[in-house]
Amino acid sequence: MEFGKLSKILKNNDIVLAIGLVIIVVMMVIPIPAPFLDLLLTINISLAVVILLVCLYTQEPLDYSSFPTVLLIATLFRLGLNVSSTRLILLYGQAGNVISSFGQFVVGGNYVVGAVIFCILVLINFMVITGGATRVAEVSARFTLDKMPGKQLSIDADLNSGLIDEEEAKERRRKLERETDFYGTMDGASKFVKGDATAGIVITLINIVGGLIIGVIQLHMDLTQALGTYTILTVGDGLVSQIPALLISTATGLIVSRATGKDESLSVDIKNEMFNDPRVLGVVSGLLGCMGIVPGMPTIPFLTIAVIAGVMAFQKSKEKAQNEVNAQAEAIEQEHQEQLGKKEKRNKATRESVMELLNVDTIEIEVGYRLVQLLNVEMGGDLLERIAQIRRQTALDLGIILPSIRVRDNLQLSPNSYQIKLKGVPLESGDVYPERFLAMSAGDPVGNISINGIHAIEPAFGLPALWIEAKDKDVAEMSGYTVVSASAVISTHITEVIKKCASEILSRFDVQQLVDNLKKEVSEDYVNDIMKDISIGDIQLVMQNLLKEGVAVRDLKTILETMSVQAKINKDPVYLTEYVRQALSRNICKQNLADTGELCVITIAPELENTIAKGASPDGKSVTIDPGITRQLIEKMNIELEKAINSTGNQPVILCSSLIRRLLRMLLERAYPQIAVMAYNEISPNVKVRTLGMVKL
Predict the structure, then answer these.
(1) pLDDT in tens, 538-584
(2) For position 3, what pLDDT does the model report?
(3) What is the distance between the alpha carbons of residues 281 and 317, in angstroms, rounded to a whole number?
(4) Are 28 and 76 in contact (CB under 8 A)?
(5) 417: exposed, middle or buried (C-beta count within 10 Å: 0-12, 13-18, 19+)?
(6) Lowest mean pLDDT segment, chosen from 169-178, 266-275, 330-339, 465-474
(7) How confident is the model over 605-624, as a mean pLDDT?
(8) Residues whose CB is less than 8 angstroms from the CB of residue 405 and which lie 6 or more positions away in sequence, other chains included
(9) In the chain, what are the helix, strand and coil shares in percent, each to the nearest 5?
């Protein structure tokens, strides 16, 4: 049981790291036995070798981003070992087998030789490797920070031009931040190595002086015996510490000087860049051969290396010649393939050009050549931006995702004309003047100020208007006109066309996308469950019926839940649509509220409702009544609507019973396509209703 708990603890890296750091700190305070010190010294040497090899095989510095922290921990560990070994040397005159072995075997028991070797190692580490690594780290940090704004601009430029997507841009920004943090941290971490080398020199001198004082004064040794005992142990301790320090300093130099952009190891780079040219190897072989035959020179070493370099040069020369032959063969084969490919491409291009003629865009806008400037951002055109806003606003208002709206020029149109196509068929058109503004007024201008302009009809709503020059814009606005730009006129016209034709724009594929999006937002199991009795086709028909009357279908969850319940009774789309309207009553009322927050309505007399109900077909999908009654209905409706609009300034809603709501809509949709027809049970309880009139025969 206890072993199992220990195993779980050791598998937790955070706990192991915390325990290791605590042990390092404790080593500086509490004496540790010599056998345990031997184990820790061996671990120190092993870790230094591991760090060196990891840095050697690292392809780029960011692959070893934890190196600065590892460097700090390794330096602290080594200093803790120095303190522990110093305590043992000065207290007991011995510090374990590892230090004794280095003092006796490595330097032959001669403390003078050991001191010289130690000084040489310290100088190499302190003056050469550590100094160079520190300088490289400083320069790398400075240049990395200096290049950071340029790299960020490059990422933004690639994102804006479409060369990369948003995810790749985020990844490159994260990598840039990590690179900056790494080199900035390495600039400070390299000071640990430099400080460690300095501390090693000071600790060694203190140990020697302290050992002599203890040996001569306290233990009454003679000077020679004290030097032989304490100096050899101190030098051994210094060598045990300086060898790992030298390895880690070398690793630091490797990691900060790794500047390759290739995904290859350092050994592969050195091989490809230094020993890949037969000319270099041939010159080296000849030079060493000449030196080997010079009298007085060591012939065997020079000639041996000369032969090796010559063999390498010969092999590289053969490889280079073979590569050239292969390259020529590949070039001939590639040229042959290109000729075949060109022929195939010509045939394929012919087929594709014909196939492209069959493609039909759902929504398309064609403009005359004078309106092309509205598409050019550099010339101040904002039509494309407005079209993008239309797609966003349509998603919010109607709850559908518009397909891409293609805009192209058409030289067959008059210069200032445009036309809107739905599925390849021209639907509506208009004329605009890019250099002018359209001024519209609902009534007489304030002060009856006369403004010169080109008389026109606003294409979206059919209002009388003037195309005025830019200099008259302020005067027109102060006179009560509503002034808009040419691109605003086109975008407004497109918006109204989309609202009128939303039911035709919504395809089954669009509905499938909306359902898939709901699965991601809510739950796939939930959506699959409520769609057991309904299909994508059923949902499309109901949504099209709603869009025909201007009802937003954004609340897809409510639509599906209502259809799921009612489909168990009747799957007829007309039947399902009426119940979905009742479920969406709050949204329908909100769309038709007047400026005062009230729902202004015109009701239908009971006898007229009975007449319409009697004319309904058995399936309830059509209505047939006397043409005279229909004409009277339209005339009376026109009178009531005019009175309601004049009294409130708002367009009222036609209110009737749920039995005839759809039938009444069918009778009125040609004469009043924009008038909403609602049933009594579609009015929310919290909505205040204001009756403005009643239609009766």
Answers:
(1) 999 999 999 999 899 999 999 999 999 999 898 899 899 999 999 99
(2) 45
(3) 10
(4) no
(5) middle
(6) 266-275
(7) 86
(8) 363, 364, 365, 387, 390, 391, 494
(9) 65, 10, 25
In the predicted model, what is the mean pLDDT of residues 256-280? 64
Alpha helices in 162-231 (DSSP H): 166-213, 223-226
DSSP 3-state assignment of 132?
helix
Quote the CA–CA distance of 438 and 369 in Å, as a whole number.
Answer: 20
Could you tell me the strand order of the sheet in which 425-431 lies?
405-409, 363-367, 417-422, 425-431
Distance of CA 529 to the CA centre of its chain: 34
Distance CA 240, CA 78 (A): 10
Q: Are strands 464-468 and 437-440 parallel, antiparallel or unpaired?
A: antiparallel
SS3 call for 628: helix
Q: Token pair for residue 165?
A: 């997507």
- Mean pLDDT of all residues in 330-352: 64
Residue 81 token pair: 């070992």
Nearest to 62 by CA among 151, 186, 203, 169: 186
What local confidence, expressed as pLDDT, does residue 126 receive?
66
HSE-up of residue 622 (Cα within 13 Å, Cβ side): 2
- Cβ proximity of 446 and 479 under 8 Å: yes
The CB-side HSE value for 417 (13 A sphere, CA atoms) comes to 10
Residues 133-146 as b or e (16 or more Cβ within 10 Å = b): bbebbbebbeebee
Question: How much is the pTM?
Answer: 0.51
- For residue range 647-657, what is the model confidence (pLDDT) as tens digits? 888 889 999 99
Helices in 428-485 by DSSP H: which ranges? 473-478
